[in-house]
Design brief:
The protein has 260 residues and is an alpha/beta fold. It has 12 helices and 8 strands. The chain binds phosphoenolpyruvate.
């Protein structure tokens, strides 16, 4: 029913076109021509064109790490959905915590970007997650409720079914701390419950909800085996083809054992 999606968010890495091409090539060659999990790479904007060329003939999708909500015009420094489609993107990451917390991105802006992505026929990967203080203050569900309500405002059930959500506890991103499978599954179940309440059970059952936050080859299998975890958004471990391929392999093994 739901196919696992393993996405590599390269963030502000690497620093040359040559290195980006080599990393994409390593993932492409290691994966081979067919896969029963979906795989996506999200390089910086400036490498999208090159990575798209490298990935030609492979089943790997291409994601941008952000987009602007307008298609064109006087918006210096921004990149739009139609531009991303033009350079081969299939997906776009929206509302990553490094943008929400580092650059003050609001739920309303995430919502505008999400609608722009859908209008451009890009698959949006919308990130949500609580900070350490919010978790310690037992505010995780309250925070997620606000992010989900604000970020997905105004979507039809059909549109919502095509959105990928990434639950990324901020305290686990790039820290080496990972949510336990029990912690992650509990939040994913909450998210799916919210989706069911707002968009209906059938839609909730279709939405891919990834986990992100220090996913590594040695913890991927048990996270991906959780019933409501439908893939991983991977940062640091996506910068080494071997580690990223090992995470994909964990997803393939979970899928082969009958997780759908
Ligand atoms: C991310 O960039 O979304 C992420 C989860 O990073 P890391 O895997 O390094 O924690």
């Amino acid at each position: 029913m739901r196919t696992l999606l393993i996405a590599g968010n390269w963030k502000l890495n690497p620093t040359s076109t040559e290195a980006a091409a080599a990393l994409a090539d390593g993932v492409k060659n290691g994966l081979g021509p067919a896969t029963d999990v979906h795989v996506v790479l999200a390089p910086p904007f400036v490498f999208l064109n090159k990575v798209d060329q490298v990935l030609e003939g492979s089943p790997i999708g291409l994601a941008a790490q952000d987009l602007y909500w307008e298609s064109n015009g006087a918006f210096t420094g921004e990149v739009s959905g139609p531009m991303l489609v033009d350079v081969g993107c299939t997906h776009v990451v929206i509302g990553h915590s490094e943008r929400r917390h580092g650059m003050g991105e609001t739920d309303a802006q995430v919502n505008a970007k999400l609608k722009a992505a859908l209008a451009a026929k890009l698959i949006p990967i919308v990130c949500i997650g609580e900070t350490k203080d919010e978790r310690l203050g037992e505010k995780t569900e309250e925070v997620l409720l606000g992010q989900l309500t604000g970020s997905l405002a105004g979507l039809t059930a059909e549109e919502a079914a095509g959105v990928v959500l990434a639950y990324e506890p901020v305290w686990a991103i790039g820290t080496g701390l990972t949510a336990t499978p029990e912690q992650a599954q509990a939040v994913h179940a909450y998210i799916r419950g919210w989706l069911a309440q707002v968009f209906g059970e059938a839609t909730a059952a279709r939405v891919v909800v990834q986990y992100g936050g220090s996913v590594k080859p040695d913890n991927a299998a048990e996270l991906l085996a959780c019933p409501d975890i439908d893939g991983a958004l991977v940062g640091g471990a996506a910068l080494k083809a071997g580690d990223f391929l090992a995470i994909i392999k964990a997803g393939q093994d979970v899928t082969a054992r009958g997780k759908s």
